[in-house]
Structure formats: structure tokens, C-alpha cells
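Section 5.1 Outputs to date
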Amino acid sequence: MKVSSFTREIKEELTLSWIDVTSDLRISLLSAFIRANGVISFSNRCENLTLEADNAQVIKFIYKQIKETIEDIDIHFYF
């Protein structure tokens, strides 16, 4: 039997239940996630937003929401 934490189960449930969200809801979600887990840095006239998450499903979900909201954004993953 696999034991999973309550927060992990909630995060996974949320990422699976947001199949079709409106753009307003998507922006609100991204804003909340970025505010809680993001760091903005500036170097060489470049702006970088770094986001951290422990759960792979959350990372995949946030990536998808960002790509659907800002189509011409350049996203990189670092592990």
C-alpha cells in the first residue's frame, strides 16, 4: 500500500480537475502560484522568473497553464 501525504493528494487532485479553465481563472491561478513560489531576477537586461515546486504533476500543470496563457514565452526546466 502506497502512503501519500494529504497535501500531495490535494495537489494531484487539483491538477487533474482543472481540465478546461477560463483565461481569467488561469491568470488567477498562475498569479497565486507565482506569488507563493516565484522569484524574479534581473541580469544583463533580462528578466527571469524562477518557480519551484516539489510535485512533478504540479510542474507539468503550471507549465501547461503558462504556455496556454502566454503563447510566445520561452520556458526552461532545471532539475
